[in-house]
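During the no-cost extension, the postdoctoral fellow (Dr. R.K.) reprocessed legacy sequence entries with the updated structure-token encoder. One reprocessed record is reproduced below for audit purposes.
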Amino acid sequence: MIWEAETENKFKVLISKIPVFHRHIAESVVKRQAEEFAVKRSASCVQEQDVVAAFFSDVPSPFYSMMIRLLGQNGFDYKKYGFPKNIKK
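Re-encoded structure tokens follow.
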């Protein structure tokens, strides 16, 4: 699926900041989930909201605070999409 250019660039930068031993799995899982969210929205491309939703749906609780920090530091405005939600992990 096609990604919105700015979203893809921010995603790549964010992924590069994840510890190396988790980087590949985080990239593949979040990428797959973001694309699924875009398809569910009948969108023509993956957008920021899909990436944000994917991170919040698939990140294990021990990495939750790091994820929030990295999202914010890399320009992902997760709050405008209603995150973080009260999710039990």
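The two ends are 29 Å apart (CA to CA). DSSP finds four helices and no strands in the chain. The remaining legacy entries will be reprocessed before the final report is submitted.
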